[in-house]
Design a protein that fits this description.
The protein is α/β, with parallel strands linked by helices. Helix content is 40%, strand content 20%. The strands form 4 sheets. Strands 3-2-4-5-6 form a 5-stranded parallel sheet, with helices on both faces. The protein is globular, with a radius of gyration of 25 Å.
């Protein structure tokens, strides 16, 4: 797939000159900083040196005083606590985080994760009943609870206190709980509302630690859980998240929890080299697999395990579940792609609403994302579960899928989510009407150009400008993620000296530009460009990221190609032969 290259706006020359002078950095580094909102020396110092001392005061969050006081009471009185989580990677890591923290004080907390298909998302009556059976004095919900209006009343009626830690969008009413922590509350003035569910739970832990007069060392061993949550839940890697991500990666790369360490060993990921992208594409999906296939208990058990042999067994169990998930995922992707290609005329449609009664609810969100990538349109994948049509929606830039679903509210039993992703249940006999209306809404909001995916370009960067000093400075921009994505550069008039296909349709290149030396380059899933790059008469423009390649104990820089476009023909076709 070829992208529309969209170049970032040019910062003012005065700003760039000031940053260059104050920070003693090249102009292209100053530009990258300015594009990320770093426009003075103090911001640059915080950006390049994020640490826990820069975290916001947790007591700035609405209801943190009563929430932390109630947990301190539970710790002092050795009360029975139930941690109520969610079945995704954010929910399971948040559950493990709170569980392990309370265990440090001698408590024996219980946890409850609803079954994805039997119970669905959020606090439910079965969970409240579980807490009652355990004799719970307190329920702490993590990554859920902000919509639990009736469930909060039910807990109160049973004499169980409820502290909610959530990060999802707040509805018209806030649950009547002992305390409700959610930085998205309209009445909350906390400086940052982009935390993950585990991030909000961490802020509660930070407040408890402060209230008890303890050192931060008591919670730093669990920052690997916060980092996995932050990366996997696709929250912005800015502000506190960037600090938590950076500090958590240090733990993952040096001394992770036993369950995480065994999982890393099983999938052959070497400590010291694990990045945000490794978590997003390798670690997170495996932890998520348990909940996607039904029961997230295996994931929580792995994350809270303190026994090496138990952790090793649980990691293997999780990998088996993940293999089942991948098989189901691949089968569903093939079916959905075939359905789009054979049954849809995309030139006449602005959205895709696909339904198959037997699709697995745990993978259709992933498949919907793939359809968006492949066909450039919002995608809604639907299955039938217990007679109800349920599904997941994914969107493209410029189309708020949550707002679109709100316009279809009369056709839906329930829905929830955010701009790019949502879940929904359709009312009986309303599928056809929903499909028609969703396409009408998308057709009004989207133009033809919106269906071509964008590739955001930070700057032009000549290959000979990739020096050791430049890489050292660029490396300090990590960890990357939404809001601080890995910079994408463009080099024009590039010559190819070698091109081949490796692995599953990956493009392996050696490239040069002018008098630069040769650079290794890899373009994942870009085999379609092989005829173009093998043509010696072509001069090409490449969009690329810079990364460090580790192989056989050696490190080297390589370019990760994102897209290729034809530039100018070579003056001498024989000048740079392609092998």
């Amino acid at each position: 797939m070829s992208y529309r290259w969209v170049f970032a706006d040019n910062p003012s020359d005065d700003l760039l000159k000031t940053l260059q002078s104050d920070l003693n950095v090249p102009r292209n580094i100053a530009r990258l900083l300015s594009l990320r909102g770093v426009d003075n020396f103090e911001k640059a110092r915080s950006f390049f040196r994020p640490d826990l001392s820069l975290l916001h005061d947790p007591f700035l969050m609405q209801d943190m005083e009563p929430a932390s006081a109630r947990l301190c009471q539970a710790i002092r009185n050795h009360e029975t606590v139930v941690i109520y989580g969610d079945y995704d990677v954010d929910g399971t890591t948040a559950t493990a985080l709170m569980f392990l923290f309370l265990k440090r004080f001698g408590l024996e907390p219980h946890y409850y994760i609803p079954h994805r298909y039997k119970e669905g998302y959020g606090i439910n009556p079965e969970g409240i009943e579980f807490a009652e059976q355990k004799g719970a004095d307190l329920i702490v919900s993590v990554d859920c609870g902000i919509t639990a209006i009736e469930e909060a009343k039910r807990a109160r009626e049973k004499g169980i206190d409820l502290v909610i830690c959530d990060h999802h969008t707040v509805g018209s009413e806030i649950p009547d709980a002992h305390a409700v922590l959610d930085p998205k509350r309209p009445d909350c003035t906390y400086p940052f509302d982009g935390l993950s569910g585990a991030g909000v739970a961490f802020k509660l832990i930070q407040a408890i630690t402060s209230r008890l007069g303890l050192h931060q060392d008591i919670y730093t061993p669990y920052l690997d859980l916060v980092a996995i949550s932050t990366a996997s839940d696709i929250v912005p890697i800015v502000d506190e998240n960037r600090i938590l991500m950076r500090e958590g990666l240090k733990i993952i790369n040096t001394n992770p929890l036993p369950g995480i360490e065994e999982l890393l060993q099983l999938i052959r990921m070497e400590k010291g080299q694990i990045s945000t992208s490794n978590i997003v594409f390798s670690v997170g999906p495996r932890i998520n697999a348990a909940g996607r296939m039904g029961d997230a208990a295996t994931a929580v058990q792995l994350l809270i395990s303190t026994d090496k042999e138990e952790a090793k067994r649980l990691a293997k169990d999780l990998e088996k579940i993940n293999l089942r998930r991948r098989e189901t995922d691949a089968k569903t992707t093939l079916q959905a792609t075939k359905m789009v290609e054979e049954e849809y005329k995309l030139c006449d449609l602005s959205s895709m609403v696909l339904h198959h009664p037997n699709w697995h609810l745990g993978v259709i969100g992933i498949v919907a994302s793939r359809l968006v990538d492949s066909f450039g349109r919002p995608a809604i994948m639907l299955s039938t579960v217990d007679g109800k049509i349920k599904g997941s929606a994914r969107s493209i830039k410029g189309f708020n899928i949550y707002n679109a679903l709100k316009e279809c509210e009369d056709l839906l039993e329930q829905f929830g989510g955010h701009e790019f992703a949502a879940g929904l249940t359709i009312k009986k006999d309303c599928l056809a009407a929903f499909r028609t209306r969703m396409d009408e809404i998308a057709g009004k909001m989207l133009k033809e150009v919106d269906f071509s995916p964008e590739l955001e370009i930070d700057d032009h960067l000549r290959i000979d400008e990739i020096t050791a000093r430049f890489w050292k400075l660029l490396h300090q921009f990590e960890p990357f993620g939404p809001g601080n994505r890995q910079p994408v550069f463009v080099a024009d008039d590039v010559q190819i000296s070698m091109a081949s296909i490796v692995g599953k349709n990956h493009l392996r290149l050696k490239v040069r530009q002018g008098m630069s030396g040769l650079f290794d380059a890899i373009g994942f899933h870009l085999g379609e460009f092989l005829p173009l790059v093998q043509n010696p008469t072509k001069r090409l423009s490449i969009a690329y990221e810079i990364e460090e390649n580790h192989w056989m104990g050696r490190r080297s820089l390589q370019l990760r190609i994102k897209d290729i476009k034809e530039n100018l023909p070579a003056q001498d076709p024989s000048e740079h032969p392609v092998s």
